[in-house]
Amino acid sequence: MPPTHDVVNQVPPLVDHDVADDPALLEGLRREGAAWAEPEVHELGLLAGSERVQEWGRLVNENPPTLRTHDRVGHRIDEVEFHPHWHDLMDVAVSRGLHAAPWRDNRPGAHVARAAKFYVWSQNEAGHTCPISMTYSAVPALRHAPELAAEYEPLLAAPVYDYGLRVPATKNGLIAGMSMTEKQGGSDVRANTTTARPTTEGTYVITGHKWFTSAPMSDVFLTLAQAPAGLSCFLLPRVLPDGTRNRIHLQRLKDKLGNRSNASAEIEYDSAVGWLVGEEGRGVRTIIEMVNNTRLDCVIGSAAGMRYGVVRAAHHAHHRETFGTRLRDHPLMANVLADLAVESEAATTVALRLAGASDRVAAGDEQEAAFRRLGLAVTKYWVCKRAPAHAAEALECLGGNGYVEESGMPRLFRESPLSSIWEGSGNVAALDTLRAMGKQPDSVEAFFAEVELAAGADARLDEAIARVRKQLADLSDIEFRSRRLVESLALVLQGSLLVRHGDQAVADAFCASRLGGDWGIAFGTLPTEVDTRAVLARVWP
């Protein structure tokens, strides 16, 4: 080859490494009562970081699912065809319990262990975690119908991925989906027009058009429809007990910005058969059990994306030289990388704290339930809102190489806005925070009881908590100001957790920037006293 083809000063691929080699993750796993799962998390981390599995993620995104509405002779089949490695990814996720293991495993820390695995595995490929998340989240909602739960929960929680259209009772495991939004309402599900007509057999006939149904290949769906007593929740299997296909038609797949490996469809219920879950007229209250758990996964997924981004940016900076010096050793790049690392650790720490709350809520802890109600709402808003900016900055650390698909960073960037939209956009999350404070004032008390466990440890945190309390004391124009209020609540929660449990250098950098006021708008504007070397020591892969 001519000398112009010599390759120098390029970065080797980051493959065959342990994705779970993450101090904030492992510290949180131990702190929240799931140290017993650490070997399993490392095993999954090594698999996620392997060159073979990274190739699976690339291929399923470059070969997105295809809708097959009819067979060759015109029969309606409504099937989605996936790349074979989609099923490989799903099989690993289900066999490792990412879908619903905590519902069959009563060990303390089961939800934390599952959250850690979800965090590690989704760093390889995020799209397939959508049906995994919905299956996890469907179980507590389904328990509003004990007879249905007794029939379906063992299959939803089974560690077996059994793809194919068959009667649910004949399968070894099930995947669940959720179908709520309609074209005229979106997040305003009370505007839904899909109808549910009761029959003499105890079932309902469901008719309507759903605008956005993710994972339409799922075995069962929880859906909302207008019953005689109002908006209600129903379970619809794709295949009925008699072996016939339920009248659920896939109209088209959405052409999405990101999440391209996962199918999302417009579906038509053409007199489909469904079973009532919960009481008629209380559909939102029933399905909110599912929504709250998928919101937790939005936080975990966003935190996972941040970790993926900052590790790759750090890997690039470690190997790349500019102006005769490794990129990591330039003070300005160190500032950028450390700022990204602080954001990542704050997100990971709060995600695991909320997962720990889920374990304690499952054990009947009412204080934790109150904390989780408000803590999850503010964290869903903030962490998911930060993900796109974080992904953009991490991509920029690679320069032009980061803008090229082969780097993996464009896929991260396209995926990053999803969690802020899924299960309620930023405004919905902000309004949900106000709703929680108004309807469940004990959630405010529980929230501040949590953050004030760090009282006196850092003056900047104490001052920030006092400012938030002052914001809450003024209810004028509260909806107009709600984003700023929710941001402040999220930051003091992250700050308190880092001060109590985090690395000292990371906690100091967080308080000096996010709470102390000496911080710019862009990443890379940490104050000069931050020990960037100590922060970055926790990032190098």
Automatic annotation (TrEMBL):
Give residue ranges for domain Acyl-CoA dehydrogenase/oxidase C-terminal.
Answer: 281-436
**PANTHER family, per this entry?**
ACYL-COA DEHYDROGENASE, ACYL-COA DEHYDROGENASE AIDB-RELATED
Query: What cofactor does its activity depend on?
Result: FAD
Which InterPro entries does the UniProt record give?
Acyl-CoA_dehydrogenase-like (IPR052904), Acyl-CoA_DH_CS (IPR006089), Acyl-CoA_Oxase/DH_mid-dom (IPR006091), AcylCo_DH-like_C (IPR036250), AcylCo_DH/oxidase_C (IPR009075), AcylCoA_DH/oxidase_NM_dom_sf (IPR009100), AidB_N (IPR041504)
User: Which residues are listed as membrane-spanning?
Assistant: none
Q: Which organism is it from?
A: Prauserella oleivorans
UniProt lists the family membership as follows: Belongs to the acyl-CoA dehydrogenase family.
The Adaptive response protein AidB N-terminal domain, residue ranges: 9-162
Keywords for the protein's UniProt record, in alphabetical order: FAD, Flavoprotein, Oxidoreductase
The UniProt entry, under PROSITE patterns, shows: ACYL_COA_DH_2
Name recorded for this polypeptide:
Acyl-CoA dehydrogenase family protein
Q: Which residues form the Acyl-CoA oxidase/dehydrogenase middle domain?
A: 178-270
